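Project outcomes to date are best conveyed with an example. Our students and postdoctoral researchers have been running inverse folding experiments weekly, and each run begins with a structure described purely in tokens. The record below, which covers 297 residues, was selected by the lab manager from last quarter's runs and is presented without edits.
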């Protein structure tokens, strides 16, 4: 059985405003997901990134699978995922993800990964194999992938896109001015080009998604600029969420953004032409992904 922990604030973080506090959930679906992941040796970004929505999502028997291990070759200053030298990929992992999705009865599956700069294809082949394994469950299963930048390798991007995910997601993460300070080896313009290429290589058949965090020191004007850049790159699905430092050693919190501002950005994004927008303090890349992908925001 899983162990329930409340999601508290890290040391030295200002007190959480009332609109960010979440209620810890135990039992039921949460224990089922926890046990299944342990049994199959799988990882989720829910655990590795200390997501504040873990209790809610697991209670509803959903999770975002994190493939290619749980050790990242990059060390972004906002991210809680472990970094270092990862183990070789588990070639059985795609089948394990499909088995977990089957046993959880999932009809919409989100697959992300650590960044694997050590692999020639950045792990694109495992992404493709996972999509194909999930497609083998049932014809109506929908798959969203949240990928690294693959160092802008078009062959790697093509490998993932040719497996035909329903949604291709790559996060811009933050505004251009702050990117070099908080993202390791990643570039603002490179991420925009990944998104643009994904749309081009898929011929418009795959929805393109991205997201940013706020509260890292950006201005409201810079947020709007980032939204314009994302839309110009062909992104149609958008997430905007509050940054919460995983620990005192991570990038410091600059501000808590009030819900009203998130609502303003959502309205503005839809006016720009985004077809699906999730904007709010607790929104994360994969939060309510099925609703966003179906245009039910």
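After processing, the design step wrote out the following sequence:
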């Amino acid at each position: 059985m899983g162990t329930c922990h409340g999601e508290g604030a890290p040391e030295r973080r200002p007190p959480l405003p009332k609109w960010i506090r979440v209620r810890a959930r135990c039992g039921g679906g949460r224990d089922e997901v926890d046990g299944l992941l342990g049994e199959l040796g799988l990882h989720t970004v829910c655990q590795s990134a200390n997501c504040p929505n873990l209790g809610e999502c697991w209670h509803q028997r959903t999770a975002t699978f994190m493939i290619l291990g749980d050790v990242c070759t990059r060390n972004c200053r906002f991210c809680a995922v472990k970094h270092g030298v990862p183990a070789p990929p588990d070639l059985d992992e795609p089948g394990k993800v499909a088995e977990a999705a089957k046993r959880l009865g999932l009809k919409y599956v989100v697959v992300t990964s650590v960044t694997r700069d050590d692999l020639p294809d950045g792990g694109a082949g495992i992404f493709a194999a996972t999509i194909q394994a999930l497609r083998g469950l049932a014809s109506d299963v929908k798959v969203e992938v949240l990928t690294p930048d693959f160092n802008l390798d078009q062959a790697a991007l093509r490998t993932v896109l040719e497996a035909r995910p329903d949604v291709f997601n790559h996060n811009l993460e933050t505004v251009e001015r702050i990117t070099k300070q908080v993202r390791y080896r990643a570039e603002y313009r490179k991420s925009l080009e990944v998104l643009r290429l994904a749309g081009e290589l898929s011929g418009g058949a795959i929805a393109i998604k991205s997201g940013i965090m706020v509260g890292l020191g950006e201005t409201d004007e810079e947020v709007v600029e980032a939204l314009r850049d994302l839309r110009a790159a062909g992104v149609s699905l958008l997430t905007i969420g509050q940054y919460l430092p995983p620990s005192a050693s991570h990038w410091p919190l600059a501000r808590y953004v009030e819900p009203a501002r998130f609502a303003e950005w959502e309205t503005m994004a839809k006016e720009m032409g985004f077809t699906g927008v999730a904007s709010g303090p607790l929104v994360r890349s994969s939060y309510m992904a099925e609703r966003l992908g179906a245009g039910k925001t």
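The chain has a mean pLDDT of 86. The chain is about 35% helix and 15% strand. The training component of this project remains on track.
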